[in-house]
Write a structure and sequence with these properties.
The chain has about 525 residues and is of the alpha+beta class. The chain contains 19 helices and eleven strands. Helix 4 runs antiparallel to helix 7. The radius of gyration is 35 Å and the shape is elongated. This is RING-type domain-containing protein.
């Protein structure tokens, strides 16, 4: 009813303006053209006078005029004998007065079907915006006429409600300062690449996320009233598009660096494709997978030679900060490990079908420990054999004692700022290897060896091997003459920013122990 009311109100614009001039003579306020457009029988809605509000109202006005022209054309062409009785229903709050009900309600027989007749009644100013009506029609001719008119109106307005970016029905339309209206998601994605209007190329001056930018409510209401089924289909298509890639490739993948379960990861997202990925993650479950870049093109199982390693960590976004230029700073934490079973590309970023990777049951872990520790003694030079003979608790103690020794020597990678980020060394043997790898300044290729493992014991043996190699290199270096000693490279800064796969030329720290580890 409100749509028909708005359509009819356009025809009353001149009459409302004339009444306003008469009211001004009587020292009353002169309504604006926009107020007159929405006025009938004393009812009106006041619009904001900002440029965006005026532009948004002009879009709705153009659509209303187009619909009006179609209905008026049908109104002039219908046969005189095709009539409909339109009866206005009296509102409940008017029934309490002493005035007869017949004097309050409007009942007229008008030419045309229900749509044309109701429009004609509203155009005459005899129908309230909130009023409800009922009809008396004869035969199916009027119903067929209504269907025909509605179909022609929708076809005529199709070009007016199409987004100029996606060429689909406008979804949550937003009007810019330059007067163009686009889907909210389309405009947001456009701002990832440029801060100019995609239609006229004027500077927009809008925040990239469109935070605080209102929707074109008038246009939204018109679309919901005119074509609710089309709007519902458009929403469903948008949800399917946001869900991920085709088929089961529904997990977004950020090919960047390493992350570990229960460990914090700080990232700086600035590429347009990853901005889109981040928005979709925030709108869904706030999770995405992070994989290490395969710089050497090593084959990854069934995946073959791909640009990432097949094992990664699922990250959960804890905090998100959007900067003025559209860059995002996020604080995330590793949730669990996974293996990529299949992969593809969706809107420029990688997506995949992943399989969660969990450890073996505790009983299997205990059986494996008993089997390895019960073997015969091994010679001192067999480092791997010695680690196999150590219990799981002894391997954990080896790692914790190494941390205490490095703390006593003021190792740079164990400074307080590092511990403030990653926390104190955990006592849980399942968590300690991931914590140790997060703070130890060695190459990511070495750290990656922890991700495919299925037992706590296997991970503890890996970090114990690192410790043995570091200590052996320290001993070998200390025995050399001062001039013959090789200067070790300083450890890399433990940064909180992520890099994309296009930024892989950053300096890597070799497995060779750092100067802080030798102190």
């Amino acid at each position: 009813m409100s749509v028909l009311y708005a359509l009819a109100a356009e025809r009353q614009l001149e009459a409302a303006a004339a009444e306003a001039k008469a009211a001004q003579t009587a020292h009353q306020v002169l309504p604006t053209e926009d107020e007159a457009l929405m006025s009938s029988r004393g009812e009106h809605a006041v619009e904001n006078s900002t440029p965006v509000a005026l532009a948004a109202h002009e879009d709705a006005r153009s659509l209303i005029r187009l619909i009006q022209s179609e209905i008026v054309a049908k109104q002039m062409s219908v046969a005189v004998d095709t009539t409909t009785l339109v009866q206005e229903q009296v509102r409940w709050d008017e029934c309490v007065s002493g005035e007869p009900v017949a004097d309050k309600a409007c009942s007229q027989t008008l030419p045309g079907g229900r749509l044309v007749a109701t429009y004609a009644l509203a155009a005459k100013g005899d129908l309230y915006r909130e009023s409800e009506v009922r009809y008396e029609v004869s035969g199916d001719a009027q119903k067929a006429l209504d269907v025909s008119i509605l179909h022609e109106v929708l076809e005529a307005t199709q070009s007016q409600v199409e987004c100029q970016v996606c060429y689909g029905l406008m979804l949550d339309p937003v009007t810019t300062f330059c007067g163009h209206t686009l889907c909210r998601k389309c405009l947001t994605r456009t701002l990832d690449h440029s801060l100019h209007c995609p239609v006229c190329r004027r500077g927009l001056g809008l925040p990239p996320s469109l935070i605080g930018q209102p929707s074109n409510k008038t246009l939204v209401d018109l679309l919901n009233a005119l074509c609710p089924d089309a709007v519902a289909l458009r929403f469903a298509a948008a949800r399917e598009e946001e869900a991920g890639g085709p088929g089961e490739l529904n997990t977004p993948l950020f090919v960047c660096s390493l992350g570990f379960p229960n460990m914090p990861v700080f990232l700086r997202i600035f590429e347009p494709r990853y901005r889109l990925m981040l928005r979709r993650s925030l709108e869904s479950n706030r999770e995405f997978g992070m994989l290490m870049y395969n710089r050497y093109g090593e084959p990854q199982g069934d995946l073959g030679s791909v640009h990432f390693y097949q094992y990664g960590t699922m990250l959960h976004i804890d905090n998100h900060q959007l900067l003025a230029d559209g860059t995002s700073l996020i604080e995330s934490r590793g949730a669990y490990r996974f293996r990529v079973r299949a992969h593809g590309i969706h809107d420029g970023y990688a997506v995949g079908n992943v399989e969660r990777l969990d450890d073996v049951p505790t009983t299997e872990e205990e059986r494996l420990e008993a089997s390895e520790t019960s073997g015969p003694p091994v010679p001192d030079w067999d480092v791997v054999g010695q680690l196999d003979r150590m219990s799981t608790q002894a391997l954990l103690d080896l790692g914790r004692s190494f941390i205490e020794r490095m703390r006593g020597r003021s190792a740079n990678w164990l400074q307080q700022r590092v511990l403030d980020i990653h926390g104190q060394p955990p006592t849980d043997p399942a968590l300690f290897p991931f914590w140790f790898a997060s703070v130890l300044p060695i190459s990511d290729e070495e750290k990656y060896k922890l991700l495919p493992t299925r037992t706590v014991r296997a991970r503890l043996k890996i970090i114990a091997g690192w410790i043995r190699r570091i200590e052996s290199q320290r001993c070998a270096t200390s025995q050399l003459p001062p001039r013959a000693r090789v200067t070790m490279r300083p450890e890399a800064e433990i940064e909180g920013e992520g890099e994309t796969e296009d930024e892989t030329d950053a300096e890597e720290v070799e497995f060779t122990p750092t100067s802080s580890a030798r102190t």
